[in-house]
Amino acid sequence: MVSSQPCLKVEKSGHVAWLVLNRPQQRNTMTMEFFEDITRCFEEFDTDPEVRVVVVRAEGKSFTAGLDLVAAQVLLGDGSAVYRDWLYRKIKELQASMTAIEKCRKPVIAAIHGHCIGGGVDLTSACDIRIASQDAVFSIRETRIAIIADIGTLQRLPYIIGQGWYRELAMTGRDFTAEEALKMGYITRLCPDRQALLEEAGKLAEEIAGLSPLTVQGVKEVANYTRDHGLHQGLEYVAQRNASIVPNEDMIEAVAAFLEKRTPKFKGR
User: What is the pLDDT of residues 94-123, one digit of tens each?
Assistant: First the structure.
């Protein structure tokens, strides 16, 4: 099944949804419409019972070159109090589009090739898993155009790669390679080329989609909650979470499949 948004394309295969950045001629730069569409897509993925995993990939030579600077001219106002209030609310709206990825209960895999610049790092930092091809190049480019990155990178990246790497990359705005991204733990798998990247992303997505969606979604919720609230509150949360869903049909199926030496068929119940 294939459906389209102005800046995005959605392809569904079984329990995996592929969200495709679809402005290849513009190197998938992010317009204001892009942010609206990505919010809508992830809200739909979250409520679609058939979707268990989302993979984000891109058409063309780049994953994304970041914010469309032509479209972004709308953000340049007259400096008035009215304008500043509007800008504050617009930034919050753009932040919400990245948070929609994080809040989506379904695990999200970013399959990154070519340039992943500026807003691309905001987007991929909100994903659960990142893998890349050898040609991938990353940059928190906002620093180099005199802007403080403001839609998620500075808040999420240090939890992924630690304070040392994070501060260097954010303060210099320099490019970093896929090899560096692997070394620092930003990506977990490095593929030789784009075709291998998409194959690896598909295999990983299918592996996760074959597991109990109740459990996988629970892991994501507990991981995010613990990151935001700390160790002890995280322990309390997971105790409450398990107490609310154990036992369930997927657990019974897992045990039965083990005893019968077959692959379990999970239904998310």
Answer: 999 999 999 999 999 999 999 999 999 999
Q: How far apart are CA 88 and CA 100, in angstroms?
A: 18
**Four-way CATH pick for 2-209: 3.40.5.10, 3.90.226.10, 3.40.80.10, 3.60.140.10:** 3.90.226.10
Domains in the chain: boundaries: 2-209, 213-259
Tokens of 19: 């969200």
Let me know: does 136 contact 63? Beta carbons within 8 Å: yes
Sign of CA dihedral 200, 205, 210, 212: positive
H helix or E strand, kind and range, residue 239:
helix 231-245
CB–CB of 112/90 below 8 Å?
Answer: no
- What is the per-residue pLDDT across 192-224, written as a single tens digit (0 to 9) for each? 999 999 999 999 999 999 999 999 999 999 999
Reported for 169-174, long-range contacts at CB under 8 A and 24+ positions apart, including other chains, are 169/139, 169/140, 170/140, 170/143, 171/143, 172/143, 173/139, 173/140, 173/141, 173/142, 173/143, 173/144, 174/139
3-state secondary structure of 247: coil
Question: How many H helices and E strands in the chain?
Answer: 10, 10
Report the predicted TM-score, pTM, of the whole model to 2 decimal places: 0.94
